[in-house]
Design a protein that fits this description.
Layout lengths: L10 H42 L6 E4 L4 E7 L5 E7 L2 E6 L3 E5 L5 H6 L1
Antiparallel strand pairs: 1-2, 1-5, 2-3, 3-4
C-alpha cells in the first residue's frame, strides 16, 4: 500500500535523455576551448617564435622586470647573454625573457610610410 509500483522504462526513451544530459557538458567544453585553451596555445606559440627570433642588440625585458640588451645568442643551448648595465653581462635562460622591446619610430619615418 505504501510502496508505489516500479515501472520499467523502454530502451528507446533512455538514449535521448543521455544525449540531452551530455549536451550542456559538451557546450561548456566548447566554450572553454575557444575562450581559454585556444588563445593560450596561440600566445605560447607566438612567445616561442619570438624567443627563436632573438638576435644581437635586441632590447628585452626579462620575467623579473630587468631591461637588458642581447649581446650573444647561443643557438646550441637554452641560454642568452644579456647586458643589463654598461660592462655588466649576465647569462639568462631563454624562457625567462618576457618580451622584446621595439625601438620607437621617428616621427618623420611614420609620415613617409
Amino acid at each position: 500500500m505504501f510502496i508505489s509500483p516500479a515501472y520499467a522504462q523502454d530502451a528507446a526513451g533512455g538514449t535521448g535523455a543521455v544525449i540531452m544530459q551530455l549536451l550542456p557538458l559538451l557546450l561548456i567544453f566548447a566554450v572553454f576551448y575557444f575562450l581559454l585553451i585556444r588563445p593560450q596555445q596561440k600566445k605560447m606559440k607566438d612567445h616561442r617564435a619570438m624567443l627563436q627570433a632573438l638576435k644581437r642588440n635586441d632590447k628585452v625585458i626579462t620575467a623579473g622586470g630587468i631591461v637588458a640588451t642581447v649581446t650573444k645568442v647561443r643557438d646550441d643551448s637554452d641560454e642568452v647573454e644579456v647586458e643589463i648595465a654598461p660592462g655588466v653581462r649576465v647569462t639568462v635562460v631563454r624562457g625567462t625573457i618576457g618580451s622584446v622591446v621595439k625601438p620607437p619610430e621617428a616621427a618623420n619615418d611614420a609620415a613617409k610610410a
